[in-house]
Amino acid sequence: MRKISFLPVVLFFSLLLINGYISYEITELIKSITFNDSLTGIFSLIIGSFVLYLLMIINFRVFLFLYPLKEGIIQEGTSQQFIYDVYVLFSLILFYPIMKSEILPVPVYRLFYQLLGAKLGSNTYPAGYLFDPILTKIGKNTILGDSSKIVPHVLESGVLAFYGIKIGDNVTIGLQSTLLAGVTVEDDAIVAAHSLVTKHTYIKSGEVWAGVPAKKITS
To answer: How many Å apart are CA 104 and CA 111, to the nearest integer?
Structure first.
């Protein structure tokens, strides 16, 4: 991972502190409105954490709306590097712990990823990890098996880049399979369990791929 510069760190933690204060005030307001003394301790913590996460997600989406994270190679010292630094701070500190903990029910993870920018069709509920939701598009009635990974970012030998991943309708991504940056999977295709689909692979409609690295085994 590249070293994160000073300014993105200041921006992120400033937002965290401001939103932390706002979430505290909102929690106190809820307690005063409900006149409920039980809203102390663990209940206040839960409410405050929920409000804080929601505010930070709003900040995250507004930031990426104003300063989009573009596909392609990110050169050091550019505006895209600054955007990436802010993006990765949000991801590593706030979003990845929720994602990897698997504490939420699968239907709630659908909403979680949508809030982070993933485009998910109807009746698609990811049971795996969408590491860069903002660059992930998945069609309807698609299965993402347990611990499958969708990874639109590349960090290899000092090269940092993002390439969106597109998955069609009625696709099956088997458990513990990984799709790397730039992969496209058309409708009705199958990626078998424990497979690794390498960067920029194009899987056509109805094909079945399997293996490490994954190769077409039938069409």
So the answer is: 10
Same domain, 81 and 142: no
Range of the domain at 2: 1-101
Rounded to whole angstroms, the Cα distance separating 97 from 63 reads: 21
Q: What are the phi and psi torsion angles at 137 (to 5°)?
A: -130, 120
Inform me whether the pLDDT recorded for 21 exceeds 60. Answer: yes
Measured CA angle at 128 (ends 53, 189), to 5 deg: 135
Report which secondary-structure segment, H or E, holds 144: strand 143-144
Q: How many structural domains are present in the chain?
A: 2
Q: What is the pLDDT of residues 126-137, one digit of tens each?
A: 999 999 999 999
Confidence label for 34 from pLDDT (cuts 50, 70 and 90): low
Q: pLDDT tens digits for 147-170? A: 999 999 998 888 899 999 999 999
Whether 85 and 5 map to the same domain: the answer is yes
Angle at 145 between CA 142 and CA 147, to 5 degrees: 135
The answer to whether the peptide bond before residue 213 is cis (omega within 30 degrees of 0) is yes
What is the bridge-based pairing of β-strands 72-73 and 159-162? antiparallel
Cβ–Cβ under 8 Å, residues 144 and 115: no
Beta-carbon contacts of residue 40 (< 8 Å; ≥ 6 apart): 31
189 and 201 part of one domain: yes
Domain limit, last residue, from 78, 101, 124: 101
Rounded distance between C-alpha atoms, residue 8 and residue 13, angstroms: 9
